[in-house]
Amino acid sequence: MENQEVLVSIKCAVYNHESYLRQCLDGFVMQKTNFRFEAIVHDDASTDGSAAIIREYAEKYPDIIKPIYETENQYSKHDNSVDRIMGAACKGKYIAICEGDDYWTDPLKLQKQVDMLNSDSSIMMVHTGFMTVNYLGETISWPKYQHFQAISRKEKGIVSLFDKNHIITLTTMFRREVMTSDLLDNAPYIYDYTYFFTAALMGKIKYLPCITGSYRKTPTGAMQSRADEVNRQLYEVYKYFVKCCLQNKPRLSCMERLEAGFFVLTNIIYNGDRETFRLLLSKRPAVMFVLPLSWMYAMAKKIKRQIKRSGK
Q1: What's phi and psi for 114, nearest 5 deg?
Q2: Burial of 282 by CB count in 10 Å (0-12 exposed, 13-18 middle, 19+ buried)?
Q3: CA-to-CA distance for 179 and 202, rounded, in angstroms?
Q4: From CA 191, how far away is CA 18, in angstroms rounded?
Q5: Cα–Cα distance for residue pair 40/86, rounded to 1 Å
Q6: Looking at 163-167, 179-183, 279-283, which range is the least confident one?
Q7: pLDDT of residue 291
């Protein structure tokens, strides 16, 4: 396949993943495909042996492993530089993501997802089932992630995302247009959740009910080490896409609009978010969340009580 153009680029962000990285990279090189793919492996100035492992694999699999070595940590700048650097290096029509502490277990993962994307040009993203493991690689049962998969099996695109960020990044593949969209460029923060919402606004999200990899739950992940900051920023992403929906009016059925409205109102009430609630009311004539006015005003009373109790 040396003369073929790269069809799929894998984005793999690495920082101090020495203990897990071989398992991750093995998941890339074992993929069986009828197309050419590459793995952009970005080491963000790790202080452990991660860079040496990447060099070893790049020498052994030069057609697949395409390394980027940073001398200064980019993630700590919080300016989305990691995303930009890796995005610029990707050549593929489709983009898959797997960070250095997660790993794939299905050698046909890429092939299955490419086949799905090729079958329908309106599909912007495909994701799959997964297992959850601890830092030792032992399979664990985690109700939160079991709930995520239950939502995925009833996949409703943007409606499901307003309910919960239920998609696990290591299972995803996107069309390149998602990564280059103005929706993404204008978002307040670039997280995986931002990608998912962007894909949902641009077209369909499809779930393949097969397990293709393992999500590693570690005590040093971003959600564990700086959970409050991350959750605050994710809520800003959430609000951004609420506003995008009000402007772009995605084509949803009446029932989907009702469901989306319920999830959004529940979320802003929980957060005591007066600004977003006022926005919904101000957009009432063209609002995508088709709700009875009496119910909206009942929600207004509830949010006032919530704000009063929280002192906001």
Answers
A1: -65, -45
A2: exposed
A3: 11
A4: 23
A5: 7
A6: 279-283
A7: 53
Give residue for tokens 């509830």: 302
For 53, which DSSP code? H
Residue with tokens 């919402």: 197
Under 8 Å CB-to-CB from 28, ≥6 apart: which residues? 10, 12, 39, 64, 65, 98, 104
For the chain, how big is the Rg over CA atoms in Å?
20
Residue 111's pLDDT is 98
Could you give the angle at the alpha carbon of 73 between the alpha carbons of 16 and 183, nearest 5°?
105
Read off the pLDDT of residues 174-189 as tens digits, 9 standing for 90 and up. 999 999 999 988 999 9
What is the b/e burial string over 82-98, where b = at least 16 CB atoms within 10 angstroms of the residue's CB?
Answer: bbebbbebbebbbbbbb
160: three-class secondary structure by DSSP? helix
For tokens 């009063």, name the residue.
308
State yes or no: pLDDT of 231 exceeds 90.
no
What are the residues facing 133 on neighbouring strands? 139, 216
Residue 294 has pLDDT above 70, yes or no: no
Q: Where are the beta strands (DSSP E) in the chain?
A: 6-14, 36-43, 65-69, 94-97, 103-104, 123-133, 173-175, 204-216
pLDDT digits (tens, 9 = 90+) for 92-133: 999 999 999 999 999 999 999 999 999 999 999 999 999 989
Contact (Cβ atoms closer than 8 angstroms) between residue 11 and residue 97: yes
- Which pTM was predicted? 0.86
DSSP 222-251: HHHHSHHHHHHHHHHHHHHHHHHHHHH---
Sign for the CA dihedral angle at 161, 165, 171, 177 comes to positive
How confident is the prediction for the chain on average, in pLDDT? 86
